[in-house]
Amino acid sequence: MIKNMPLWNLLFKYGRSDDPEHPTELCILDWQLMRVASPALDVLFFLFLSSDGELRKQYYTKLIDEYYDSLSSFLRELGSDPEVLLPFPILLEHLRKLSGFVLLIAIWLLATNMKESDDVPDFSNIDSEDALVTMISVVPKRGYLQRIRELVSDMIEFDYPFSKLVDQ
C-alpha cells in the first residue's frame, strides 16, 4: 500500500457544538515521504510514538481491530477486497515482523522529539561524523527512559520478537 511517513503531521477538525472537544474529521498533511510499504509500519509508529504505555495496555488490541475495520471499510468503498489485499492475520504478522525496526527508530525519534527546544540539535552546523554522533547522543532527561521502558515492555507483552532485530 502507499504509505506516508511520519504519521504525526495531522490536522484535526472540530465541528460539533454538542461535543467540541472531539474531532469530527482528520486530514494527513505532509505527503513528501510517500512510499509503498505495509500499513503495519504506520500503525506501529503511530501507536508506539504517539501514545503511552497506559493507553496501549488498555486499548492496543481494540485499536488494531478498529484500524483494520476502518481500513477494510475504506478498501471496500474503493472496490477492493481487504481479505485479498491484506487479510487480518497478515496484518498481525507484519506488526510482529516490523516491530524490531520500529523499536530501533523509536529509540532515536523519541530522544529527538522529547528534547527541550534549546537542546534540539542544529544539524546545519555539523562538520563531522563525530559531531553528529555527539549531537544525537544527548538523551532528554524528562520522561524519555520511562517511554522507552514502556515501549519495550509493551512489545514484549504483545509477543513482538526482539531476536531478529539485526535481520530487519
Automatic annotation (TrEMBL):
**Pfam families given for it?**
EcKL
Report the domain of life of the source organism: Eukaryota
Which InterPro entries does this chain map to?
A: EcKL (IPR004119), Kinase-like_dom_sf (IPR011009)
Protein name per Swiss-Prot or TrEMBL? CHK kinase-like domain-containing protein
